[in-house]
């Protein structure tokens, strides 16, 4: 778990496994600990790279304000340090916005994107108010403790996970966490989604009601995506639907790597653990034709 100076700040990161690289991005206040299940379950086939954003977890504080552009540059320089030319990128929640920004800024570095409960903007009253409350609470150490308890408990599948997430969140810098939340309020890349040409996997919980609008914005804007909806889940897929999420990521990357090697494109074959929101979704999801074999043979 190295600590290195990346782009003028101390970054804590972890590389586990070998193979095709997948770089994971966490939302505000949380840390790379949120991807522990992905580290364990995917590193037997892929090179899993997780890191704490500036001012979060074990990374050092940032002396300049947190912006998505700054985080993307940090990620690029981390990939350069690790001598990784290309990777898949996976962003969770607000981290998905950063993943989209990275794919727009450095399209040559990312083979594909995985958006988990993600959004390209914050535009509805409910989410805006939630983030505004988080901005307010994260201004003071006393108040941010309550925010940490709520966010880490909400992302926990048990007491052990809660303790780990809370421990790492407490290490963050209050000002930098506040800046991350605040920047998300004004960010939008919705108008530029059509510029992303790499394949994108959209993963959402069916019970994540407030994010349905953001899923649809991505569907309308992206030119090449696959959509999987988790029937009984809400927002916190990396920890509360880890087994299913990791399996679909594994299969999706296998298919697209097969396509790269065979110069084709392929649709997702839906495992039993997943379902589309309704049958009509099969007609609207932007699958592409392929002659690649089904998942079971990859």
Automatic annotation (TrEMBL):
Please provide the record's keywords in A-Z order. Hydrolase
Quote any Pfam family the record assigns: Abhydrolase_1
Known InterPro entries for this protein?
AB_hydrolase_1 (IPR000073), AB_hydrolase_fold (IPR029058), AB_hydrolase_sf (IPR050266)
Kindly list the GO CC terms recorded for this protein. Answer: membrane
- AB hydrolase-1 domain segment(s): 21-235
Lineage: superkingdom: Bacteria
Q: Which GO terms describe its molecular function?
A: hydrolase activity
Q: How is this protein named in the record?
A: Hydrolase
């Amino acid at each position: 778990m190295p600590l290195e100076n990346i782009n003028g700040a101390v970054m804590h990161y972890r590389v586990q496994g070998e193979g095709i690289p997948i770089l994971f991005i966490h939302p505000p206040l949380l840390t790379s600990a949120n991807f522990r299940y992905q580290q364990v379950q995917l590193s037997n086939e892929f090179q899993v790279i997780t890191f704490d954003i500036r001012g979060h977890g074990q990374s050092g504080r940032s002396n300049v304000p947190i912006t998505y552009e700054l985080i993307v540059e940090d990620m690029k320089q981390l990939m350069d340090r690790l001598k990784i030319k290309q990777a898949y990128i996976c962003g969770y929640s607000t981290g998905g916005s950063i993943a989209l920004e990275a794919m727009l800024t450095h399209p040559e570095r990312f083979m594909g994107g995985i958006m988990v409960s993600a959004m390209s903007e914050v535009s509805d009253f409910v989410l805006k108010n939630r983030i505004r409350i988080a901005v307010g609470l994260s201004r003071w150490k006393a108040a941010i403790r309550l925010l940490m308890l709520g966010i880490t408990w909400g992302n926990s599948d048990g007491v052990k996970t809660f303790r780990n997430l809370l421990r790492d969140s407490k290490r963050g810098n209050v000002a930098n966490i506040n800046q991350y939340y605040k920047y998300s309020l004004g960010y939008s890349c919705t108008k530029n989604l059509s510029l992303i040409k790499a394949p994108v996997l959209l993963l959402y919980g069916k019970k994540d009601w407030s994010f349905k609008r953001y899923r649809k914005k991505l569907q309308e804007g992206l030119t090449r995506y696959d959509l999987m909806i988790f029937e009984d889940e809400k927002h916190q897929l990396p920890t509360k639907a880890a087994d299913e999420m990791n399996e679909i990521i594994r299969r999706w990357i296998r298919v697209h790597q097969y396509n790269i090697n065979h110069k084709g494109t392929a649709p997702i074959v839906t495992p039993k653990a997943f379902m589309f929101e309704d049958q009509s979704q099969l007609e609207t999801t932007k699958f592409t034709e392929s002659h690649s074999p089904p998942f079971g043979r990859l």
